[in-house]
Write a structure and sequence with these properties.
Blueprint: E1 2-7, E2 10-15, E3 25-34, H1 37-44, E4 65-66, E5 70-78, E6 91-94, E7 97-100, E8 103-106, E9 120-124, E10 128-130, H2 137-140, H3 143-156, E11 162-167, H4 171-182, E12 189-191, H5 195-204, E13 208-210, H6 217-229, H7 235-240, E14 244-249, H8 256-263, E15 269-272, H9 284-290, E16 293-296, H10 302-314, E17 323-327, H11 332-338, E18 347-350
Helix pairs in contact: 3-4, 3-10
C-alpha cells in the first residue's frame, strides 16, 4: 500500500507492506484521517516515550511507522476469530486502540498498529463503530479529536457555581467548549493568542474570548465571574462570593500550566489536557498554598467516545468551524508542517 511513513524523524510517502489482520481485527481502507497536534509531538519528541513501559506508544526511529489516529474508514476484510458483524463496504471508526497478542497499541503511534496516513489499517472489531450518517468522511473523522475534550469536560462536572476558563483553542480546547455548551454550562471564557482561533471558539460556543497578549486571562475571568455572581441565574454564588474557577489547559507548551498555577484563583480546579512532551516545571508550593486541584489528562472513556462520535455523526455538533483543507498522501509531509502554524485551521484532513 501507499503510505506517509515516519522514519528517523522525517515523513515520506512510499510503498510499504499491507497490514494483515490478526485475531479479532478488521482490515479497513482509510477514507479520511485528521492531522493532530499529538502526531507532531510524537514525531518531534521520540524521547517522550522512554518512560512509558506499556508498549502502547513506541517510536523506534529505525522502523517504519504510519501515523494517523483520527480516521473514518471502510471495512474490506476480516481477521481470524472475528464475528464479521460489520459488512464489507461499511464506513466505520473506532477509539484508536488496537488489541494485539502482545498487548494494546495506540493506532498510529506504534510499528504494530499503522494509522490512517496509509491506504489500509487495522481496527479492533469489538470497539469498532458503524458510521450511521450521510456526512462526509472528512467530517466524521474529527469525532476522535472531539472525544478528548468531550470526555475532559464531562469528567469536570462543572457546577452552576463555577465559571470555566478554557486556555488554548486548538481542536481539544474547542471540543471542551463544545461539550460545555452542550451541557448548558456557561458563561465560558476562552483564551488564545490567535484571532482566528478565538473566532472559532466563539463559533463553537464560547461566551467571552480573550487575547492574553492584551488582557490577563485571570483578570478577564474575574470580570466575567463577578457578573455571574451577581446574576439571578446563580443566587448561591451571589451569597458566597465569586463562582469557583475551573481551568482547562489545552495548549501543551511548557510554562502554560505553571502560569495557570501562579495566576489562578485560590481553590481552582485545573484539568491539564495539553501535556507538553518536553515536560513541565511546576510551582507546587504555590499550588499547595492556593489549595489547587490538578487533574492530568487521560484518554476518553469508551462511553464518552461513543457520545462524541454520535454527536458528530448525527450533526448535533457542527464541527465545520474546525475543518481546513484536505490533502492526499503525497502532500502529508508538507501538511504536517502546515499544521504547526497556529494561524491555520484546527484540522487538516488526509484523504488517502
Amino acid at each position: 500500500m501507499r503510505a506517509a511513513v515516519l522514519r528517523g524523524g522525517t515523513v515520506e510517502t512510499r510503498i510499504v507492506d499491507d497490514p494483515v489482520p490478526g485475531p479479532g481485527q478488521l482490515l479497513v481502507r482509510s477514507l479520511a484521517c485528521g492531522i493532530c497536534a499529538s502526531d507532531l509531538h510524537f514525531m518531534d519528541h521520540p524521547e517522550a516515550g522512554t518512560d512509558d513501559d506499556s508498549g502502547m506508544s513506541t517510536y523506534d526511529q529505525d522502523v517504519d511507522i504510519v501515523m494517523g489516529h483520527e480516521y473514518c474508514a471502510e471495512v474490506v476484510g476480516y481477521g481470524p476469530g472475528t464475528e464479521r458483524r460489520i459488512p464489507v463496504g461499511t464506513r466505520v471508526s473506532s477509539l484508536p486502540v488496537l488489541f494485539t497478542a502482545a498487548g494494546r497499541r495506540i493506532i498510529g503511534q506504534n510499528p504494530d498498529s499503522p494509522g490512517g496516513f496509509g491506504e489500509y489499517l487495522l481496527l479492533t472489531e469489538a470497539i469498532t463503530r458503524v458510521v450511521v450518517s450521510d456526512l462526509p468522511s472528512e467530517v466524521v473523522c474529527v469525532a476522535d479529536a472531539i472525544s478528548v475534550g468531550w470526555s475532559t469536560a464531562s469528567r469536570a462536572r462543572v457546577t452552576a457555581g463555577e465559571v470555566p476558563l478554557v486556555v488554548g483553542c486548538g481542536a481539544i480546547g474547542l471540543s471542551v467548549i463544545a461539550r460545555l455548551r452542550h451541557l448548558g454550562v456557561g458563561p465560558v471564557v476562552a483564551v488564545d493568542f490567535v484571532a482566528a482561533r478565538r473566532e472559532t471558539a466563539r463559533a463553537m460556543g464560547a461566551d467571552v474570548v480573550v487575547d492574553p497578549a492584551g488582557v490577563s486571562p485571570f483578570r478577564a475571568w474575574r470580570d466575567v465571574a463577578e457578573g455571574a455572581a451577581g446574576s439571578a441565574r446563580d443566587l448561591m454564588a451571589a451569597v458566597t462570593g465569586l463562582p469557583g474557577c475551573v481551568v482547562f489547559e489545552c495548549v501543551g507548551v511548557p510554562g502554560v500550566l505553571d502560569s495557570i498555577i501562579k495566576g489562578c484563583e485560590r481553590g481552582t480546579r485545573i484539568f491539564s489536557v495539553g501535556g507538553p512532551p518536553e515536560g513541565e516545571r511546576l510551582h507546587t508550593l504555590t499550588a499547595k498554598r492556593k489549595g489547587l486541584n490538578v487533574q492530568f489528562g487521560g484518554g476518553p472513556s469508551m462511553t464518552d467516545w461513543d457520545e462524541a462520535f454520535e454527536a458528530v455523526c448525527s450533526g448535533g455538533l457542527d464541527v465545520g468551524p474546525l475543518l481546513g483543507g484536505t490533502v492526499g498522501l503525497d502532500e502529508v509531509p508538507a501538511a504536517l508542517d502546515a499544521a504547526r502554524d497556529a494561524n491555520g485551521p484546527a484540522r487538516i484532513v488526509v484523504v488517502p
